[in-house]
Every structure is written in C-alpha cells, then in structure tokens.
Amino acid sequence: MKVARALGGVAALAAMGWGVHACAPSGFANEYNIDSVRILASSATEPYAKPGDAVTVQVLAYDGRPMKPAPMQVSWFPLQCDNPTDDAYYACFEQFGALSSADAGGAGRPTADAGASAGAGALSLVAGQDLTPFLTPGPNMTVIIPPSIIASHPPVAGSSPYGLVILFNFACAGHLEFTPPSSSNANPQQVPIGCFDSNGNALGPDDFVFGFTRIYVSDTVTDTNPVITEVDSPDAPDGGLKVSQGTTIAPLNVASCSSKCPKIPIGPVIQTPAAGREVWVDFFSTAGTFNSDARLLYSATTGSEGPPSTTDTSFYAPPDAGAQLLWMVVHDDHNGASWVTVPVEVQQADAGSN
User: Fold this and answer.
1) How many folded domains does the chain comprise?
2) What is the mean pLDDT of the chain?
C-alpha cells in the first residue's frame, strides 16, 4: 500500500531535494513514472477555510497499470476528522468505526464519534466489513467546516489560533474493507482499511493507495490555490498553451526517436503569488524521463526564480510511438495545489530517422 498526502511547508521542500537529478539507480523505478494506481495530488477550494464554510476537495488520481484485471475506484471515507491529537493524521484512525469491537476486550479505545463531525458520525464497523456502502465515490468530496473548530483546537505555542480538518481518500482496484489492528499491535500509524479483490485477496501497492488531505481553518488567513495560466514549451503552439485548474490541454506532438530522444523544455507559468510564498512544481508522466522531477518557482525570501527558461524541466519522450500523459502539479507552502494534464503524442518515426 502507498500513502499519498497533501504536503506544504518546509517538510515537503526538504523531501523533494531541489536540483537532484531525477534518474533512478538501475533496478529502481522513478517515482515520477506512473505505472500503478496512484494519487498524485489533492486540492481544496479553500486551502485556508473559515468556520462554517463548505469546502470541496478534489484528488488527481490515475491508473497506470499495464494490466487492469479490475478498474481503479476513487472514493472517500465519510468521516470528517476534526482537530486530531497533535494534528496527526493517524490519530484519526481511532474514529474509523467501532475499533473496540474487533479487539479482545478493546479496553481504552475511544468510540467512533470521538472528534467526528459531519458525514459518518458514529459508524459501527466490524473487522472484514465491506466499506462500499459507506464510501463517497468519485474524485470530489464536500465538507462543512464546524463553527467551533478553532476554539476547540488546543493552543500551539508561536502560532495564531487555527483549526484542522483531515479527509481520507483512496484509490483501489477492488473494494475496501475495514481491517482494524489487533489489541497487541502498538503501531498507531497502521491504516485500518485494506483493498481486496473479488476473491478476498489483499491487494498490494500497485493496486491500492491511501491518501489524506488537510484543510486548515483560520479567522485571519485567507488563501487561494496557485493559478496556472500557461504551459510553457517550444513544442506547444506559439510556445505556450493557456490552461486552468484541472484542465487537459491540447496534446504536444513529439517526433519519435529510436534511441537518444531530444529534450523538450516544459513547465508551468503561474500568476504571481503573494509575497513570501514558496511555490514549486512536481512533474509526473506515464513514460519518458525528466532531468528534474521538481522545480522551485518562487522562493519565500527572494521571490521568482526566473522566467520559464530557468524554471522549466527537460522532458525526454519515450523512444517509441503512442499516446502518453504528463502532469504538472504546482504546490505552495500554504497548503495550496493546482495541476494541469498534458497529453503527449509521440509520432511514429519515418524509416531511417533517429
């Protein structure tokens, strides 16, 4: 099982390793090549919401498996986890149904409605139960931010008052079942939900991704997601294509090559963010390689990193013909995210061409 999450701030930047070449060592797959069930990103209509707001969260998921015995299903657990202990996503797991019913005795386990708000409320689940009837299907889920969420969040030293809502999403090439840990399992991060095929066999990381999205709540902070205005590429018409959130643009037509493929500079152009904002882009594709799968666009201290010629990555199309996909996911350090999908049409090479 893979875990996907919406990341912001220093932790995300440290994890990406700016400037590191994206090629993987021999025998290891590149993280940016999508050849399995994947959740690439999530985005809330309000990265920082207000109490009482209705917020819709969308996930970007793709099934890149070469063989698909069962289709990928994207869904949400109908539990809105509010202000979990220490803001830890796994502290919400104790709300995933009546965990005590699956344990021997279940002493010390809180009930399912502890900290839960709209949605599931107090579900009463048992180990092995098919969750399909409870799930919210599809890539989007809308929640109502509780009016008291800021007041009920414990104060954090050095931080203005805030609240936190966490939502859980899944991409599963089968069906989901409730799989609570036994009372002897002391690992608080064990996900109590598994993905199973029609014969009851547990599916692995190529077929199952568990994800979560954080929505921060503030009375004083108002934020919007990064706005992608254009895809910059010399192979695009006029060197760029106008886009908007979630858009799939017209395909880039790339000449096929038999061995060493030419590099294609490509990257997003975004609206200037607020001062002091750090903004970066992650690149993914179904085939081909990048010289860098993450690029910094704006620094919190120095602003713009430069024009597209500076911040673009280089994409090397696969040395064969066919239709492929490329994604650019733009994040900022205030929990914002936007993306664009770029089809890549690799044209069949003429005889004798390189």
Assistant:
1) 2
2) 80
Tokens of 63: 């099934």
pLDDT of residue 271: 94
Least confidently predicted of 6-10, 32-36, 348-352: 6-10
Q: Which helix (H) or strand (E) holds 312?
A: none
Same-domain check for residues 168 and 238: no
Give the pLDDT score at 163: 97
Nearest to 22 by CA among 331, 294, 281, 328: 294
Residue 338 belongs to domain with CATH number: 2.60.40
- Global confidence as pTM: 0.82
Q: Does any domain span residue 1? A: no
Statement to judge: residues 210 and 342 lie in one domain: no
Q: Which residues contact 14 (CB under 8 A, 6 or more apart)?
A: none
Tell whether 303 and 208 lie within a shared domain.
Answer: no
For residues 44 and 338, give the distance between their C-alpha atoms in angstroms, rounded to a whole number: 9
Residue 9 in any domain: the answer is: no
Calpha distance 278→41 (Å, rounded): 17
Domain span including residue 267: 228-347
> Residues 61-83: pLDDT tens digits?
999 999 999 999 999 998 889 99
**Look-up of token digits 């502290």:** 91
- What residues pair up with 212 in beta bridges, in sequence order? 5, 168
